[in-house]
Amino acid sequence: MTIEEAKKRLCLALDVDSLSHAMRLVETLKDRVTLFKIGFQLFTKEGPAAVLAVRRLGGRVFLDLKYHDIPNTVASAAKEAVNMGVYMFNVHTSGGSEMMMAAVEGAAAQAEKNHVSTPVILGVTVLTSLNDKILADELCVNNALSHHVTHLAALAKAAGLDGVVASPREITSIRQSCGHDFTILTPGVRPPWIKDEDDQKRTATPAEAMRLGADYIVVGRPIIKADDPAAAADNVLRDMAGL
Ligand code: C5P
Hints:
The chain is globular. The longest helix is centred in the middle third of the chain and has 18 residues, at 97-114. Helices cover 48% and strands 15% of the residues. The chain has helices at 3-9, 19-29, 40-46, 48-56, 71-84, 97-114, 132-137, 145-158, 171-178, 206-212, 221-224, 229-240, and strands at residues 10-13, 35-38, 60-67, 88-92, 120-124, 163-165, 183-186, 216-219.
């Protein structure tokens, strides 16, 4: 893969607590990263202004708010995501098929109305903070976690979602069951030169995630907390490209 291709597949998590900090990162990194993830922290603090500011600087936005509600509410939220001009957003697959279909239909209807492309809609399967024991004891899911992930990914595909968010260890089985025309975005990526794994436990390097078949990798702290975020991003891109 070339560096230019890698740039299209690197998603930077803007996990910061102010719009000004986020904007500094986008300004610094926009020649290296084209997709910026806005999650609960920044969106709760700054709201749609954060989305609009990233777009104004030329970045694409992945709105990571993991919608999970009754179908009508999720459809309405999906419409507002389209109105903000996000490139990608996500929903919880455990909200069920009807909810996922409502997200797809709501987004498509609004996109048609606004004469824009429908955003890429991804599903969250099982949060990586859960494990087999929690799934069985607390959520009464008596399926092994890995099977449950694959099951939910297939459900997402059948409901019309474009892909899923998946940890590195889930990529292979999701690819096998959902095929290649299904987007996989992978967090939990740690460059090989990072010794401290923060709270990420089952990590892969950028090169490994690409080799396993991820379409996008999400990287946050290894870049945004680096002394030189631009140099860190360059190193991630080189690793993705196998250089
Ligand atoms: O800083 P770091 O590279 O760990 O950031 C990863 C980003 O991906 C964070 O925004 C985190 O919320 C998100 N994420 C994750 N693990 C998941 C799903 C999302 O780390 N399973």
